[in-house]
Amino acid sequence: MTSGTLLAVCRVHQLLPTTDSTGVTAIDKRPVVGPVKVHGLGLNGDIQASRKHHGGVSKAIYAYSQDDADYWAAELGTDIQPGLFGENLRIAGLPVSEAVIGERWQIGDGTVLEVTCPRTPCRNFAAWMKQPSWVRRFAAAGRVGTYLRVVRNGSISAGDPVTVIRRPDHGVTSGDVFRGASAEQARLLADAEASGDLALSPEIQKVLRTLKIRQDQESVAATR
């Protein structure tokens, strides 16, 4: 199967104040040395200030690819160090932003993670980056990385191999969902869940519900 390399494991360095209702952000993540334990809510020693938006079981870990970081390094004229985008994992050799929903990665000897949904950039990310129109620019590039759930706990370290051990046949990627899933892609995801091939995250289920409501409204409008 396809494989890559875990370049860095990153967790929160310090909480920073924000102007939103949470009051703090844990976006300041930096690489750590040595093995880090992985559990159902993410990395040991890490934190998400708002699990509604950036954490919980279906968004326990955020991964970003080195290829996408290199793109932004060229765009911004500065190095994009591991953790700068708030990611927990920096990975080389895998198209992280285009990973298939439900795809499973084994890291090291036994930790297994599953691709769940894309990252949606927020104003705290923009404030952290201090770049003009950052949310719009980041979204337009489509290089948003992906969230993962923990399927099997374990321990991971920089340098570990990252191997795709399962890739669902539906083919819909995290990037597809971020750009706006088509009706056909929504059907493929729904069918995959109905067949027991995967369990869609609450975030993807919400996307499918919204799409169905829009389609129903368009169908009603077309009959008038």
TrEMBL record:
Pfam family, one: MOSC
Family annotation (InterPro entries): Benzoxazolinone_Detox_Enz, MoCF_Sase_C, Pyrv_Knase-like_insert_dom_sf
Domain MOSC: 30-165
Origin superkingdom: Bacteria
Protein name: MOSC domain-containing protein
Organism the protein comes from: Arthrobacter gengyunqii
